[in-house]
Amino acid sequence: MATGVADLPEDVRARVATLRDALLAPRATIAGLGFDRAHVMGIVNVTPDSFSDGGDNGDRVAAARAMAAAGASIVDLGGESTRPRAATVDAGEELARVGPVLAGLRGSGIMVSIDTRKAAIMAAALDAGAAIVNDVSALTFDPDALALVAARGCPVVLMHAQGTPATMQDAPTYADPLRDVFDWLEARIATCAAAGIGRERIIADPGIGFGKTLAHNLALIRGIAMFHGLGVPILLGASRKAVVGKLSGDVPVGERLGGSIALALHGVAHGVQIVRVHDVAPTVQAIRLWQAVQ
C-alpha cells in the first residue's frame, strides 16, 4: 500500500516540510543580484601559484575590468592560495597582494568579492569597496570572522572543505559525500544565522576539490540540485580543477576550458545561481547559447 507524507512519523514530516519550504522559497536579491538567471563570478588571483597568474597589479585590475565587460556579475579577488598543499599566508602579505588591486577597482562599479579566510582581510577589503566575503572555511578559520561578517551586514559565501588546504587531500573520507556535505552546510548556515548573519545574505558552495576525491567530487556535481534544499543560492566552482583534468585524460591546467564549461553548464542546468570561473567570456557565451536554445 502506498504511503503518503501524512503517514510518516512526525519528525520526518517536519523535515520534509522544512526541505519543501527551502526548495520553493524565492531566493533573495544579494548585493543587488537577482537570481532569476545564472551569474558568472570571475576569478582574479594575486598568488604565485595561481591557475591563471594575472601578472602585476595593473594587469590584474585590467583583467577584472575585462571580466566585467565580458559579462561577469562578480569578480572574486584572492591573495592566498587554497590549492592542495598550499601553506597559510601571513595576513600582512595577503593584504599587500590584494590591496593595490582593490584600490585600482574602487569606484569602477565592478562588484568585488574578497576570497579570504581572515577577518582582517575581510574588513580591509570591505572598507576598500568589496561587497561580498567568500570564505573557503565558511567562517571557521578565523575566530573573529563570524562576528565581523555579522556586524558588517555583508553577503557571504560559505564553502564546505574537509581539512585545510595543506592537508585536505591527505585522506578525505565521507560516509555519503552528498549527504555529509549537505548536512554540514545546513548546520553551518544555521550557526551563522544564529550569530546574526541573515539567511538572505548567505550563499552556499559545496567546495569541489576541497578535501574530496574524484569520486566525491562527481557525487557532488551529479547531485548538485540537492543543495537547493538549503534554501540559499548555490555557487559551483569547478573551473580548471583536478576533476576536469582527470576526467579529460590528465590534461594540464591550460587545456581544461572545455571541461570547465561543461561543468558550469551542468550546474546552470540544475539551477545553480553562480558559477565561479577563470574563463569568463567563453563561459558567458556558452550559458547564453544554452539558455537561448532551451
Describe this structure in words.
The model has no long low-confidence stretch (mean pLDDT 94). The radius of gyration is 19 Å and the shape is globular. Strands 6-5-4-3-2-1-8-7 form an eight-stranded parallel sheet. The chain contains ten helices and eight strands. Helix 2 (57-70) crosses helix 3 (91-105), helix 3 (91-105) packs parallel to helix 4 and helix 9 packs across helix 10. The longest helix is centred in the middle third of the chain and has 18 residues, at 177-194. By secondary structure, it is of the alpha/beta class. Helices cover 41% and strands 12% of the residues. The chain has helices spanning 10-24, 57-70, 91-105, 119-127, 145-152, 177-194, 214-222, 242-247, 257-269, 280-293; strands at 39-45, 74-78, 112-115, 132-135, 156-159, 202-205, 235-236, 274-277.
Write the layout of secondary structure elements.
Elements (H helix, E strand, L loop, with lengths): L9 H15 L14 E7 L11 H14 L3 E5 L12 H15 L6 E4 L3 H9 L4 E4 L9 H8 L3 E4 L17 H18 L7 E4 L8 H9 L12 E2 L5 H6 L9 H13 L4 E4 L2 H14 L1
Parallel strand pairs: 1-2, 1-8, 2-3, 3-4, 4-5, 5-6, 7-8
Helix pairs in contact: 2-3, 3-4, 4-5, 9-10
